[in-house]
Amino acid sequence: MDANEYVVRTKGLVKEYTMGDQTLRALNGVDLDIYRGEYISIMGPSGSGKSTLFNAIGGLDKPTSGSVFINDVDMAQLDAQELAYLRCHTIGYIFQTFNLIPVMTALENVTLPTIFAGMSTDDGIERGMELLKIVGLDQRLHHKPFELSGGQQQRVAIARALANNPSIILADEPTGNLDLKTGQEIIALLKRLNVEQGVTIISATHDLKMLDISDRIVWIRDGRIDKLEERKNIELKMGEMEGEPVH
Amino acid sequence: MSVDKPSAHMSHKEVRQQIKLPFSKAVEISLRSIKIRFARSIITAAGIMLGIAFFASVRMSAEFSVIHEKIVHETVAAFQAGKLHHITEDQTRMISSATTDVKAAQQDALAARERLDWLSIMALIVCTVGITNAMLMSVTERYKEIGTMKCLGALDSFIVKLFFIESCLTGFISSVIGFLLGWFIISLVHIFTDGMLAFGAQYWKSSLTLFGLSVLIGTFLTFIATIAPAVRAAQMPPAAALRVEI
Ligand SMILES: Nc1ncnc2c1ncn2[C@@H]1O[C@H](COP(=O)(O)OP(=O)(O)OP(=O)(O)O)[C@@H](O)[C@H]1O
Ligand SMILES: [Mg+2]
Protein backbone atom coordinates (compact mmCIF):
# COMPACT_ATOMS: atom_id res chain seq x y z
CA MET A 1 0.00 0.00 0.00
CA ASP A 2 1.21 3.51 -0.76
CA ALA A 3 2.58 5.16 2.34
CA ASN A 4 1.24 8.53 1.21
CA GLU A 5 -2.23 7.36 2.00
CA TYR A 6 -1.60 7.57 5.70
CA VAL A 7 -1.30 10.77 7.60
CA VAL A 8 -0.86 9.10 11.00
CA ARG A 9 0.37 5.63 11.86
CA THR A 10 1.02 4.18 15.26
CA LYS A 11 3.01 1.01 15.85
CA GLY A 12 2.85 -0.97 19.07
CA LEU A 13 2.01 2.10 21.10
CA VAL A 14 2.33 1.52 24.85
CA LYS A 15 1.86 4.11 27.56
CA GLU A 16 2.39 3.29 31.18
CA TYR A 17 1.70 5.57 34.09
CA THR A 18 3.61 4.93 37.25
CA MET A 19 2.14 6.02 40.52
CA GLY A 20 4.22 4.97 43.48
CA ASP A 21 4.94 1.29 43.02
CA GLN A 22 1.93 0.75 40.78
CA THR A 23 2.15 0.74 37.02
CA LEU A 24 -0.93 1.29 34.92
CA ARG A 25 -0.99 0.45 31.22
CA ALA A 26 -3.23 3.07 29.68
CA LEU A 27 -2.24 1.97 26.14
CA ASN A 28 -1.32 -1.60 25.52
CA GLY A 29 -0.01 -2.02 21.98
CA VAL A 30 -2.04 0.18 19.66
CA ASP A 31 -1.50 -0.19 15.91
CA LEU A 32 -3.59 2.29 14.01
CA ASP A 33 -3.29 3.66 10.48
CA ILE A 34 -5.25 6.77 9.68
CA TYR A 35 -5.92 7.77 6.07
CA ARG A 36 -5.33 11.24 4.78
CA GLY A 37 -8.58 13.19 4.71
CA GLU A 38 -10.70 10.79 6.72
CA TYR A 39 -12.92 11.49 9.67
CA ILE A 40 -12.11 8.92 12.28
CA SER A 41 -13.73 8.60 15.69
CA ILE A 42 -12.18 6.92 18.67
CA MET A 43 -14.86 5.44 20.86
CA GLY A 44 -14.58 3.65 24.16
CA PRO A 45 -15.67 3.67 27.76
CA SER A 46 -14.27 6.11 30.26
CA GLY A 47 -10.72 5.25 31.21
CA SER A 48 -10.15 3.10 28.13
CA GLY A 49 -7.22 5.26 26.98
CA LYS A 50 -8.72 7.67 24.44
CA SER A 51 -7.11 10.78 25.85
CA THR A 52 -3.83 8.95 26.28
CA LEU A 53 -3.93 8.02 22.59
CA PHE A 54 -4.84 11.61 21.71
CA ASN A 55 -1.80 12.88 23.62
CA ALA A 56 0.53 10.36 22.01
CA ILE A 57 -0.65 11.08 18.45
CA GLY A 58 -0.51 14.82 19.06
CA GLY A 59 3.01 14.75 20.46
CA LEU A 60 1.77 16.13 23.75
CA ASP A 61 3.19 13.25 25.75
CA LYS A 62 5.86 10.64 25.07
CA PRO A 63 4.74 7.02 24.79
CA THR A 64 6.54 4.46 26.94
CA SER A 65 7.30 2.40 23.85
CA GLY A 66 6.13 2.10 20.27
CA SER A 67 6.07 4.87 17.71
CA VAL A 68 3.87 7.47 16.12
CA PHE A 69 4.47 8.51 12.52
CA ILE A 70 3.06 11.77 11.24
CA ASN A 71 3.35 12.04 7.48
CA ASP A 72 5.81 9.16 7.74
CA VAL A 73 8.06 10.99 10.16
CA ASP A 74 8.79 9.21 13.41
CA MET A 75 7.81 11.64 16.12
CA ALA A 76 10.40 10.22 18.53
CA GLN A 77 13.18 11.38 16.17
CA LEU A 78 12.17 15.02 16.33
CA ASP A 79 14.02 17.57 18.39
CA ALA A 80 12.20 20.21 20.41
CA GLN A 81 12.12 22.74 17.58
CA GLU A 82 10.82 20.28 15.03
CA LEU A 83 8.18 19.07 17.46
CA ALA A 84 7.10 22.66 18.03
CA TYR A 85 6.91 23.17 14.26
CA LEU A 86 4.70 20.09 13.98
CA ARG A 87 2.38 21.27 16.74
CA CYS A 88 2.22 24.69 15.17
CA HIS A 89 1.73 23.82 11.51
CA THR A 90 0.65 20.23 11.07
CA ILE A 91 -1.72 19.51 13.95
CA GLY A 92 -4.62 21.51 15.34
CA TYR A 93 -5.87 20.57 18.80
CA ILE A 94 -9.38 20.77 20.19
CA PHE A 95 -10.10 19.92 23.83
CA GLN A 96 -13.17 19.03 25.82
CA THR A 97 -12.49 21.99 28.09
CA PHE A 98 -11.81 24.36 25.15
CA ASN A 99 -8.54 25.59 26.73
CA LEU A 100 -8.84 29.13 25.45
CA ILE A 101 -6.59 31.67 27.11
CA PRO A 102 -9.03 33.35 29.48
CA VAL A 103 -7.55 36.85 29.40
CA MET A 104 -7.50 37.07 25.61
CA THR A 105 -10.36 37.94 23.27
CA ALA A 106 -11.67 35.47 20.70
CA LEU A 107 -9.62 37.16 17.99
CA GLU A 108 -6.45 37.22 20.08
CA ASN A 109 -6.86 33.53 20.88
CA VAL A 110 -7.21 32.67 17.20
CA THR A 111 -4.29 34.91 16.26
CA LEU A 112 -1.88 33.39 18.79
CA PRO A 113 -0.79 30.39 16.66
CA THR A 114 -0.07 32.71 13.73
CA ILE A 115 2.37 34.63 15.95
CA PHE A 116 4.19 31.39 16.72
CA ALA A 117 4.26 30.67 12.99
CA GLY A 118 6.00 33.99 12.43
CA MET A 119 3.13 35.67 10.59
CA SER A 120 2.98 39.46 10.77
CA THR A 121 0.42 40.98 13.13
CA ASP A 122 -1.72 42.35 10.30
CA ASP A 123 -1.78 39.09 8.38
CA GLY A 124 -2.54 37.22 11.60
CA ILE A 125 -5.50 39.45 12.40
CA GLU A 126 -6.82 39.11 8.89
CA ARG A 127 -6.49 35.33 9.11
CA GLY A 128 -8.16 35.32 12.53
CA MET A 129 -11.14 37.31 11.30
CA GLU A 130 -11.51 35.05 8.28
CA LEU A 131 -11.49 31.95 10.51
CA LEU A 132 -13.95 33.35 13.04
CA LYS A 133 -16.23 34.09 10.11
CA ILE A 134 -15.95 30.48 8.96
CA VAL A 135 -17.06 29.25 12.38
CA GLY A 136 -19.83 31.86 12.49
CA LEU A 137 -18.44 34.13 15.18
CA ASP A 138 -17.58 37.25 13.20
CA GLN A 139 -19.86 39.22 15.54
CA ARG A 140 -17.94 38.12 18.63
CA LEU A 141 -14.36 39.04 17.74
CA HIS A 142 -13.59 41.06 20.83
CA HIS A 143 -15.36 38.99 23.45
CA LYS A 144 -13.39 37.23 26.14
CA PRO A 145 -14.05 33.49 26.60
CA PHE A 146 -16.13 34.01 29.77
CA GLU A 147 -18.47 36.23 27.74
CA LEU A 148 -19.14 33.40 25.30
CA SER A 149 -21.31 30.30 25.59
CA GLY A 150 -19.71 26.85 25.69
CA GLY A 151 -20.56 26.23 22.04
CA GLN A 152 -19.14 29.59 21.02
CA GLN A 153 -15.95 28.93 22.98
CA GLN A 154 -15.54 25.62 21.20
CA ARG A 155 -15.99 27.40 17.88
CA VAL A 156 -13.21 29.81 18.81
CA ALA A 157 -11.07 26.80 19.72
CA ILE A 158 -11.82 25.22 16.33
CA ALA A 159 -10.93 28.46 14.54
CA ARG A 160 -7.69 28.58 16.53
CA ALA A 161 -6.90 24.96 15.65
CA LEU A 162 -7.24 25.90 11.96
CA ALA A 163 -5.06 29.00 12.16
CA ASN A 164 -1.97 27.61 10.45
CA ASN A 165 -3.74 25.33 7.97
CA PRO A 166 -3.02 22.03 9.71
CA SER A 167 -3.47 18.78 7.87
CA ILE A 168 -4.75 17.07 11.02
CA ILE A 169 -7.31 18.14 13.56
CA LEU A 170 -7.10 16.21 16.81
CA ALA A 171 -10.13 16.55 19.02
CA ASP A 172 -10.58 15.05 22.48
CA GLU A 173 -14.28 14.87 23.25
CA PRO A 174 -15.03 18.18 21.57
CA THR A 175 -18.71 17.90 22.46
CA GLY A 176 -18.19 16.54 25.97
CA ASN A 177 -19.07 19.78 27.73
CA LEU A 178 -21.85 20.84 25.38
CA ASP A 179 -25.56 20.21 25.27
CA LEU A 180 -27.12 18.01 22.61
CA LYS A 181 -27.96 20.69 20.08
CA THR A 182 -24.72 22.65 20.46
CA GLY A 183 -22.81 19.39 20.26
CA GLN A 184 -24.54 18.60 16.99
CA GLU A 185 -23.60 21.99 15.58
CA ILE A 186 -19.96 21.44 16.49
CA ILE A 187 -19.98 18.00 14.90
CA ALA A 188 -21.53 19.45 11.75
CA LEU A 189 -18.86 22.15 11.68
CA LEU A 190 -16.06 19.60 12.00
CA LYS A 191 -17.60 17.50 9.24
CA ARG A 192 -17.88 20.56 7.02
CA LEU A 193 -14.19 21.36 7.53
CA ASN A 194 -13.37 17.74 6.80
CA VAL A 195 -15.30 17.75 3.53
CA GLU A 196 -14.57 21.29 2.32
CA GLN A 197 -10.95 21.67 3.38
CA GLY A 198 -9.86 18.04 3.37
CA VAL A 199 -8.56 18.18 6.94
CA THR A 200 -8.10 14.79 8.55
CA ILE A 201 -10.18 14.70 11.72
CA ILE A 202 -9.33 12.40 14.58
CA SER A 203 -11.76 12.69 17.41
CA ALA A 204 -12.07 10.86 20.69
CA THR A 205 -15.66 10.81 21.80
CA HIS A 206 -18.44 9.26 23.84
CA ASP A 207 -20.96 10.91 21.58
CA LEU A 208 -23.00 8.48 19.51
CA LYS A 209 -23.99 11.30 17.16
CA MET A 210 -20.38 11.29 16.01
CA LEU A 211 -20.88 7.84 14.50
CA ASP A 212 -23.19 9.19 11.85
CA ILE A 213 -20.60 11.32 10.17
CA SER A 214 -17.42 9.34 10.79
CA ASP A 215 -15.74 7.45 7.97
CA ARG A 216 -14.35 4.94 10.43
CA ILE A 217 -14.75 4.19 14.08
CA VAL A 218 -12.07 2.75 16.34
CA TRP A 219 -13.34 1.10 19.47
CA ILE A 220 -10.84 0.88 22.24
CA ARG A 221 -11.10 -0.99 25.48
CA ASP A 222 -8.47 -1.29 28.19
CA GLY A 223 -5.82 0.37 26.06
CA ARG A 224 -6.29 -1.91 23.04
CA ILE A 225 -8.13 -1.61 19.79
CA ASP A 226 -11.25 -3.68 20.25
CA LYS A 227 -12.59 -3.29 16.73
CA LEU A 228 -12.37 -1.01 13.73
CA GLU A 229 -15.53 -0.34 11.77
CA GLU A 230 -16.22 1.29 8.42
CA ARG A 231 -19.13 3.60 8.19
CA LYS A 232 -21.08 1.41 5.74
CA ASN A 233 -21.19 -1.36 8.31
CA ILE A 234 -22.29 1.11 10.94
CA GLU A 235 -25.15 2.35 8.81
CA LEU A 236 -26.34 -1.20 8.56
CA LYS A 237 -26.22 -1.47 12.31
CA MET A 238 -27.97 1.84 12.79
CA GLY A 239 -30.78 0.38 10.74
CA GLU A 240 -30.90 -2.63 12.99
CA MET A 241 -30.92 -0.45 16.05
CA GLU A 242 -33.93 1.48 14.82
CA GLY A 243 -36.44 2.17 17.53
CA GLU A 244 -33.75 2.16 20.19
CA PRO A 245 -33.21 5.53 21.80
CA VAL A 246 -29.92 7.08 20.86
CA HIS A 247 -28.64 9.54 23.43
CA MET B 1 -4.81 23.13 2.10
CA SER B 2 -1.09 23.06 2.33
CA VAL B 3 -0.12 19.55 3.14
CA ASP B 4 3.53 18.71 3.41
CA LYS B 5 4.26 16.07 0.84
CA PRO B 6 5.77 13.11 2.59
CA SER B 7 8.12 10.69 0.92
CA ALA B 8 7.92 6.95 1.34
CA HIS B 9 11.10 6.91 3.33
CA MET B 10 11.06 8.53 6.65
CA SER B 11 13.69 11.04 7.42
CA HIS B 12 13.25 13.56 10.12
CA LYS B 13 14.74 16.28 7.97
CA GLU B 14 11.32 16.69 6.41
CA VAL B 15 9.98 18.51 9.41
CA ARG B 16 11.19 22.05 9.52
CA GLN B 17 12.46 23.77 12.62
CA GLN B 18 10.09 26.03 14.43
CA ILE B 19 11.25 29.62 14.07
CA LYS B 20 12.68 31.41 17.08
CA LEU B 21 10.65 34.53 17.72
CA PRO B 22 12.67 37.70 18.29
CA PHE B 23 13.07 39.08 21.79
CA SER B 24 10.98 42.11 20.86
CA LYS B 25 8.02 39.82 20.22
CA ALA B 26 8.45 38.32 23.70
CA VAL B 27 8.55 41.83 25.19
CA GLU B 28 5.40 42.74 23.28
CA ILE B 29 3.52 39.66 24.44
CA SER B 30 4.62 39.94 28.07
CA LEU B 31 3.71 43.62 28.22
CA ARG B 32 0.30 42.76 26.84
CA SER B 33 0.06 39.90 29.30
CA ILE B 34 0.78 42.20 32.25
CA LYS B 35 -1.69 44.74 30.92
CA ILE B 36 -4.58 42.38 30.25
CA ARG B 37 -4.36 40.78 33.65
CA PHE B 38 -3.76 44.16 35.25
CA ALA B 39 -5.80 43.50 38.38
CA ARG B 40 -3.94 40.23 38.95
CA SER B 41 -0.60 41.91 38.23
CA ILE B 42 -1.39 44.57 40.83
CA ILE B 43 -2.09 41.94 43.48
CA THR B 44 1.14 40.11 42.65
CA ALA B 45 3.01 43.41 42.62
CA ALA B 46 1.45 44.42 45.95
CA GLY B 47 3.00 41.36 47.56
CA ILE B 48 6.46 42.36 46.37
CA MET B 49 5.84 46.03 47.16
CA LEU B 50 4.84 45.39 50.75
CA GLY B 51 7.77 43.06 51.29
CA ILE B 52 10.24 45.61 49.99
CA ALA B 53 8.49 48.47 51.81
CA PHE B 54 8.84 46.56 55.07
CA PHE B 55 12.48 45.79 54.39
CA ALA B 56 13.25 49.36 53.35
CA SER B 57 11.54 50.84 56.41
CA VAL B 58 13.39 48.60 58.85
CA ARG B 59 16.70 49.24 57.11
CA MET B 60 16.01 52.96 57.00
CA SER B 61 15.35 53.01 60.76
CA ALA B 62 18.68 51.30 61.23
CA GLU B 63 20.32 53.92 59.03
CA PHE B 64 18.73 56.67 61.05
CA SER B 65 20.10 55.25 64.27
CA VAL B 66 23.57 55.07 62.72
CA ILE B 67 23.34 58.64 61.48
CA HIS B 68 22.01 59.78 64.82
CA GLU B 69 24.82 58.11 66.70
CA LYS B 70 27.33 59.69 64.39
CA ILE B 71 25.87 63.14 64.93
CA VAL B 72 25.91 62.69 68.71
CA HIS B 73 29.48 61.50 68.55
CA GLU B 74 30.55 64.45 66.43
CA THR B 75 28.68 66.94 68.57
CA VAL B 76 30.18 65.64 71.80
CA ALA B 77 33.65 65.61 70.26
CA ALA B 78 33.23 69.18 69.03
CA PHE B 79 31.91 70.28 72.42
CA GLN B 80 34.79 68.72 74.31
CA ALA B 81 37.28 70.31 71.91
CA GLY B 82 35.59 73.61 72.58
CA LYS B 83 34.65 74.12 68.97
CA LEU B 84 30.94 74.61 69.58
CA HIS B 85 30.06 78.31 69.77
CA HIS B 86 26.31 78.44 69.36
CA ILE B 87 24.85 75.48 71.15
CA THR B 88 21.29 74.69 70.12
CA GLU B 89 18.66 73.15 72.33
CA ASP B 90 18.98 69.82 70.51
CA GLN B 91 22.71 69.78 70.98
CA THR B 92 22.44 70.56 74.67
CA ARG B 93 20.14 67.60 75.13
CA MET B 94 22.44 65.38 73.13
CA ILE B 95 25.54 66.40 75.02
CA SER B 96 24.02 66.13 78.47
CA SER B 97 22.56 62.65 77.86
CA ALA B 98 25.73 61.41 76.20
CA THR B 99 28.06 62.76 78.89
CA THR B 100 26.09 61.95 82.04
CA ASP B 101 26.18 58.22 81.44
CA VAL B 102 28.49 57.44 78.56
CA LYS B 103 28.47 53.68 78.99
CA ALA B 104 24.70 53.37 79.22
CA ALA B 105 24.18 55.54 76.15
CA GLN B 106 26.60 53.49 74.10
CA GLN B 107 25.03 50.24 75.24
CA ASP B 108 21.58 51.54 74.42
CA ALA B 109 22.66 52.49 70.93
CA LEU B 110 24.33 49.14 70.38
CA ALA B 111 21.29 47.20 71.56
CA ALA B 112 19.01 49.27 69.35
CA ARG B 113 21.18 48.62 66.34
CA GLU B 114 21.35 44.92 67.02
CA ARG B 115 17.57 44.81 67.29
CA LEU B 116 17.20 46.59 63.98
CA ASP B 117 19.70 44.29 62.29
CA TRP B 118 17.71 41.30 63.45
CA LEU B 119 14.54 42.96 62.30
CA SER B 120 16.13 43.58 58.87
CA ILE B 121 16.92 39.90 58.54
CA MET B 122 13.38 39.03 59.55
CA ALA B 123 12.06 41.57 57.06
CA LEU B 124 14.15 40.01 54.33
CA ILE B 125 12.81 36.55 55.15
CA VAL B 126 9.21 37.77 55.23
CA CYS B 127 9.84 39.56 51.95
CA THR B 128 11.34 36.43 50.34
CA VAL B 129 8.44 34.26 51.45
CA GLY B 130 5.91 36.84 50.29
CA ILE B 131 7.45 37.26 46.86
CA THR B 132 8.02 33.53 46.34
CA ASN B 133 4.44 32.85 47.30
CA ALA B 134 3.01 35.53 45.01
CA MET B 135 5.09 34.47 42.01
CA LEU B 136 4.59 30.75 42.55
CA MET B 137 0.85 31.34 42.54
CA SER B 138 0.99 33.49 39.44
CA VAL B 139 2.94 30.84 37.51
CA THR B 140 0.96 27.89 38.85
CA GLU B 141 -2.34 29.40 37.84
CA ARG B 142 -0.96 29.64 34.32
CA TYR B 143 0.19 26.04 33.84
CA LYS B 144 -2.78 25.42 31.61
CA GLU B 145 -1.97 28.50 29.56
CA ILE B 146 1.63 27.33 29.23
CA GLY B 147 0.46 23.89 28.06
CA THR B 148 -1.92 25.50 25.59
CA MET B 149 0.78 27.76 24.19
CA LYS B 150 3.03 24.77 23.67
CA CYS B 151 0.23 23.02 21.77
CA LEU B 152 0.05 26.07 19.52
CA GLY B 153 3.74 25.89 18.72
CA ALA B 154 5.53 27.88 21.44
CA LEU B 155 9.10 26.79 22.16
CA ASP B 156 10.07 26.16 25.78
CA SER B 157 12.62 28.94 25.53
CA PHE B 158 9.97 31.41 24.40
CA ILE B 159 7.80 30.64 27.42
CA VAL B 160 10.77 31.09 29.72
CA LYS B 161 11.52 34.39 27.99
CA LEU B 162 7.97 35.58 28.59
CA PHE B 163 8.21 34.89 32.30
CA PHE B 164 11.72 36.32 32.46
CA ILE B 165 10.55 39.65 31.08
CA GLU B 166 7.38 39.68 33.13
CA SER B 167 9.19 38.91 36.38
CA CYS B 168 11.96 41.44 35.85
CA LEU B 169 9.49 44.19 35.00
CA THR B 170 7.09 43.38 37.82
CA GLY B 171 9.96 42.93 40.28
CA PHE B 172 11.64 46.18 39.31
CA ILE B 173 8.58 48.41 39.31
CA SER B 174 7.16 46.95 42.52
CA SER B 175 10.51 47.25 44.28
CA VAL B 176 10.88 50.90 43.32
CA ILE B 177 7.39 51.71 44.57
CA GLY B 178 7.88 49.54 47.66
CA PHE B 179 11.14 51.27 48.53
CA LEU B 180 9.66 54.74 48.08
CA LEU B 181 6.76 53.77 50.32
CA GLY B 182 8.86 52.40 53.19
CA TRP B 183 11.53 55.08 52.90
CA PHE B 184 9.08 57.95 52.78
CA ILE B 185 7.03 56.79 55.76
CA ILE B 186 10.05 56.17 57.97
CA SER B 187 11.61 59.50 57.01
CA LEU B 188 8.36 61.23 57.83
CA VAL B 189 8.13 59.47 61.19
CA HIS B 190 11.70 60.46 61.91
CA ILE B 191 10.99 64.10 61.21
CA PHE B 192 8.12 64.07 63.69
CA THR B 193 10.05 62.31 66.44
CA ASP B 194 13.62 63.57 66.06
CA GLY B 195 13.43 66.67 63.91
CA MET B 196 15.44 67.55 60.84
CA LEU B 197 18.89 67.00 62.30
CA ALA B 198 19.62 63.72 60.53
CA PHE B 199 18.79 64.98 57.03
CA GLY B 200 22.26 65.78 55.76
CA ALA B 201 24.53 64.36 53.10
CA GLN B 202 24.85 61.10 55.03
CA TYR B 203 21.06 60.67 54.90
CA TRP B 204 20.91 60.98 51.13
CA LYS B 205 23.89 58.69 50.69
CA SER B 206 22.32 56.00 52.87
CA SER B 207 18.98 56.41 51.11
CA LEU B 208 20.54 55.96 47.71
CA THR B 209 22.47 52.86 48.79
CA LEU B 210 19.33 51.43 50.35
CA PHE B 211 17.37 52.20 47.17
CA GLY B 212 19.86 50.23 45.09
CA LEU B 213 19.87 47.37 47.57
CA SER B 214 16.07 47.18 47.80
CA VAL B 215 15.54 47.23 44.04
CA LEU B 216 18.26 44.66 43.53
CA ILE B 217 16.87 42.33 46.19
CA GLY B 218 13.26 42.78 45.06
CA THR B 219 13.97 42.24 41.37
CA PHE B 220 16.28 39.32 42.03
CA LEU B 221 13.88 37.55 44.39
CA THR B 222 10.98 38.05 41.98
CA PHE B 223 13.06 36.75 39.12
CA ILE B 224 14.24 33.64 41.01
CA ALA B 225 10.78 32.93 42.39
CA THR B 226 9.26 33.14 38.90
CA ILE B 227 11.86 31.54 36.74
CA ALA B 228 12.19 28.28 38.68
CA PRO B 229 8.52 27.26 38.38
CA ALA B 230 8.30 28.73 34.87
CA VAL B 231 11.20 26.63 33.61
CA ARG B 232 9.64 23.60 35.24
CA ALA B 233 6.29 24.27 33.59
CA ALA B 234 7.86 24.99 30.21
CA GLN B 235 9.79 21.72 30.25
CA MET B 236 6.76 19.61 31.12
CA PRO B 237 5.14 17.73 28.26
CA PRO B 238 2.08 19.77 27.27
CA ALA B 239 -0.23 16.94 28.34
CA ALA B 240 1.07 17.18 31.90
CA ALA B 241 0.86 20.97 32.02
CA LEU B 242 -2.71 20.85 30.73
CA ARG B 243 -3.72 18.39 33.44
CA VAL B 244 -2.72 20.68 36.28
CA GLU B 245 -5.83 21.93 38.03
CA ILE B 246 -5.70 24.59 40.70
N1 LIG C 1 -1.38 11.47 33.99
C1 LIG C 1 -1.86 10.29 34.40
N2 LIG C 1 -1.34 9.69 35.48
C2 LIG C 1 -1.80 8.50 35.88
N3 LIG C 1 -2.76 7.81 35.28
C3 LIG C 1 -3.33 8.34 34.20
C4 LIG C 1 -2.91 9.62 33.70
N4 LIG C 1 -3.65 9.89 32.60
C5 LIG C 1 -4.47 8.85 32.44
N5 LIG C 1 -4.30 7.91 33.38
C6 LIG C 1 -5.01 6.63 33.48
O1 LIG C 1 -4.95 6.00 32.24
C7 LIG C 1 -6.20 5.38 31.91
C8 LIG C 1 -6.69 5.93 30.60
O2 LIG C 1 -7.04 7.29 30.77
P1 LIG C 1 -7.56 8.22 29.62
O3 LIG C 1 -7.64 9.60 30.15
O4 LIG C 1 -6.78 7.99 28.41
O5 LIG C 1 -9.04 7.63 29.42
P2 LIG C 1 -10.19 8.15 28.46
O6 LIG C 1 -10.55 7.01 27.57
O7 LIG C 1 -9.81 9.41 27.82
O8 LIG C 1 -11.36 8.38 29.48
P3 LIG C 1 -12.51 9.49 29.46
O9 LIG C 1 -13.51 9.04 28.47
O10 LIG C 1 -13.06 9.47 30.84
O11 LIG C 1 -11.88 10.78 29.10
C9 LIG C 1 -7.12 5.69 33.09
O12 LIG C 1 -7.18 4.53 33.89
C10 LIG C 1 -6.47 6.81 33.80
O13 LIG C 1 -6.71 6.73 35.17
MG1 LIG D 1 -10.44 11.44 27.97
Question: Describe it for me?
Answer:
The complex is a heterodimer of chains A (247) and B (246). Chain A contains 8 helices and 10 strands. Chain A is an alpha/beta fold. Chain A has a single domain, classed as Rossmann fold, CATH 3.40.50. In chain A, the strands form 2 sheets. In chain A, strands 6-7-8-3-9-10 form a 6-stranded mixed β-sheet, with helices on both faces. Chain A has a 4-stranded antiparallel β-sheet with strand order 2-1-4-5, with helices on one face. In chain A, β7, α6 and β8 form a beta-alpha-beta unit. The C terminus of chain A is likely disordered. Chain B has 246 residues and is mostly helical. Chain B has a domain of 165 residues. Chain B is 80% helix and 0% strand. Chain B is built from 8 helices and no strands. In chain B, α6 runs antiparallel to α7. Chain B is elongated and about 90 Å long. Chain B starts with 22 loop residues before the first helix and ends with a helix. The N terminus of chain B is likely disordered. Chains A and B meet through β5, α2 and α3 of A and α1, α5 and α8 of B. Adenosine-5'-triphosphate binds next to β1, β2 and α1 of chain A.
What structural keywords apply?
heterodimer, A: 247 residues, alpha/beta, Rossmann fold, 6-stranded mixed sheet, 4-stranded antiparallel sheet, 8 helices, 10 strands, 28% strand, disordered C terminus, B: 246 residues, 80% helix, elongated, disordered N terminus, binds adenosine-5'-triphosphate, binds magnesium ion
